[in-house]
Amino acid sequence: MSHTEHDFQDYEFSAVPAGARRGFWTMLAVMLGFTFFSASMWAGGTLGKGLTLFEFAWVVLAGNLVLGLYAVLLAFIASRTGLSTHLLSRYAFGVRGSWLPSFLLGGTQVGWFGVGVVMFALPIEAATGTNIYLLIAIGGVLMTATAWVGFKALTILSFIAVPAIFVLGNMSVAMAVGEAGGINALAAITPEDPITLAVALTACIGSFISGATLTPDFVRFARSPKIGVSTTLIAFFLGNSLMFTFGAVGALVYSEADISQVMFAQGLILPAILVLGLNIWTTNDNALYAASLGFANITRLPKHWIVIFNGVIGTLASMWLYNNFVGWLSFLSSALPPIGAILIADFFMVARRHYPTLEQAAFKHVNWIAVGAWAVGFAAANLLPGIPPLNAVLSAFIVYIVASRVMGAAGERRTIAAD
Fold this sequence. Notes:
Layout: H1 3-7, H2 24-35, H3 38-50, H4 53-81, H5 85-93, H6 99-128, H7 132-149, H8 151-180, H9 183-188, H10 197-206, H11 209-213, H12 216-219, H13 225-254, H14 259-265, H15 269-299, H16 303-316, H17 318-323, H18 325-335, H19 337-350, H20 368-383, H21 388-406, H22 409-412
């Protein structure tokens, strides 16, 4: 297959071959385009309104370090095997068991797509007065179209959007610091409605735990594990921390969590529309792309057609999703982390870093140990005190390893052929 043909393949049912793998700069652009998301700035703005500057810095560094380490382990697996999250799930969950993570991850990414479409439309409505629902429809169509093209479109958009949002975000921060009277004055601001550090950490980790869990969908294109791990760590630790900072500084000074409203107050109306719109577009493309890989795993239908269906559903439900954003974060914090924890436990601890190829492997229909570990992780996130995403990850990780060893399922489950 030629390089041009590789550009239009998404390998939803197979490993990415060596000829389609990408180098450091392409992967870094794609991963930063994924984590440079305006919703992270919004979440950062929410934290900025409830924490002091010192508390905010501690929470964001700690939260994104946890996210980064979690994503890096998944990135290593993906770049080693060339497999998406959903194909990797077959090793841990079984062929039909993998439908559970595919449905949860695919459904949440369609939800993120809907949130992003509204965030794309709102600044344009504020600046032009154009009907919000018309803008949502136009945004949904445009984003669905580029997601339909696939990984090549994600790369091109990311190369444009990442430098633009970096420049605009730093410009906004500099203006906000100047408005406050300097860093010392900014640090002296105390929140009117403070939030606890546990709540803040939950919001920080929960705001992008779905993206971290889907890291393999993109990093499988990395030419080597070194490239996959390094670009993922930069994107999730540095990139996501920047997004939170861009949102928080504006919130501290202007008491407004919505980054577009902060930029409007700063007179950055046209740059905000162009750059934030493009930024949201890149992440929404990633979300729709990943969701469609998940539903392709369930239905065995080509990814391209599922993209269209998911784009329509996400666009139609977008306003509801946007208005229920906090509840959505709470769901993500408890339902998705156990999936990544089980994939990590299976590859590193049970399979000891060696998977047979998809063609050579034989899977159970459902590995109930994985399903049970997921349920324990989900329950731990909702019932145990502390930080829900961490409770979910640790509980699912431990239960999966112990149950696999005790029940003797580590090797046996891969000897039963699927239909």
